[in-house]
């Protein structure tokens, strides 16, 4: 799915394998509870990006206002560069390089309830 402009709040909520490329910005709570797939944002992301994320991959080119519970910045390894390049190519985006993005994903601390993490839920 390619969004030719901005997407509002909760873009990619509960993703289950879809790939979404947003040429603009995404609003707050985007990729909330995203389970799998990829969200590519060429612009900025609002508050609580990736809150309660599972295994989806988030790639943001711009600024992120804040990360949601259990979402962290992750290393961009060669396999992620390849995935991102493929997504950009399939979306017809030729003027952007994968190394301009930051990758975000799950810290994997909230998969199972633990009383020590109760404040994060």
TrEMBL record:
Molecular-function GO term, any one: oxidoreductase activity
Highest taxon, organism lineage: Bacteria
InterPro entries associated with the record: Glu_synth_asu_C_sf
Designated name of the protein: Glutamate synthase alpha subunit domain-containing protein
